[in-house]
Known about the structure:
Blueprint: H1 2-13, H2 22-34, H3 37-40, H4 46-64, H5 74-86
Amino acid sequence: MFLRKHFAYYENHQIRPHRLPDASRLCLLFWSRLFDWQAALVVVKANTFIRWHRKGFKLYWGRKSRGGRPPLPKEIRQVILVWSEKT
């Protein structure tokens, strides 16, 4: 509701939208918990938004949870090779 009113005000007064202050963003965050935000998505369908969110989440955790150990320094690898040749 707030966003719709906000954009309608900009359209009526032909004002270019500006960045919201932190207090307004916090209000939007709390209001988003009180109403069905999916119904407010006009430009993007809810399924598209959710798909984007899931894709971003996959990318984030894919990078964060890369497997494997960091490579050993060259000197240690050489020591291991020399030791393995002796046995």
